[in-house]
Design brief:
Blueprint lengths: L14 H9 L5 H20 L3 H18 L9 H19 L21 H14 L2 H12 L4 H8 L3 H18 L1 H8 L2
Helix pairs in contact: 1-2, 2-3, 2-4, 3-4, 4-7, 6-7, 6-8, 7-8
Length: 190
């Protein structure tokens, strides 16, 4: 009992508890799980997809798939990793279907930043460079370098060997370094 005789607030349920409650018929458990991870999953979808509209559609497809297949979750990884993998796969599926409009080529002259303190320009430039990467490399480098997952976790999420994740990240980093070289040159000339 609480100080005033009422019930003490229940501790928040873990992701695993929410997923289990959803499978057991709790109508609101999946909604709570979705709201807990929505911002991070949407950011991942935007980084993996070619535009925000595709990201929103892919996230919706992913959440519907997760909702339907929650009973098949094997509990051999974190629920957030499972959701991450579903979102990445939905983005990859959408990109494969829309292959004709994936990315434009980087024009190093138009991507130069006139004001290096303008974070928005830098963010857009880096995002554009990410979109130039092959989808598999982008998924790996976003998971490891931007989302902070380990190589082993990323390998499990993407369903590939750890060595594949390492090589995809290395190739992506090399391409990003080449594409974003002018940012380092601009910073060095200040």
């Amino acid at each position: 009992m609480g100080i005033f005789g009422g019930r003490q607030p229940a501790r928040p349920r873990s992701d695993r508890e929410l997923l289990a409650a959803h499978v057991d018929g709790d109508r609101y458990a999946f909604e709570e799980l979705f709201h807990r991870h929505h911002r991070r999953l949407y950011r991942l979808a935007v980084l993996t997809s070619s535009n925000p509209h595709d990201a929103a559609d892919a996230l919706q497809d992913a959440m519907l798939a997760a909702h339907r297949t929650a009973g098949t979750f094997r509990h051999d990884s974190a629920v957030s990793s499972w959701l991450y993998r579903i979102v990445v796969n939905a983005c990859l599926d959408r990109l494969r279907r829309n292959k004709f409009g994936v990315c434009d080529e980087i024009d190093s002259n138009s991507a130069a930043i006139a004001d290096p303190t303008a974070r928005v320009d830098t963010t857009l430039t880096v995002h554009h460079a990410l979109m130039q990467l092959p989808v598999e490399q982008r998924a790996a480098v976003v998971a490891v370098d931007m989302q902070g997952y380990s190589v082993a976790e990323t390998a499990r999420m993407l369903g590939v060997p750890e060595g594949t994740v390492k090589s995809r990240c290395a190739r992506a980093r090399t391409k990003l370094a080449t594409a974003l070289h002018f940012l380092a040159v601009d910073a060095a000339t200040e």
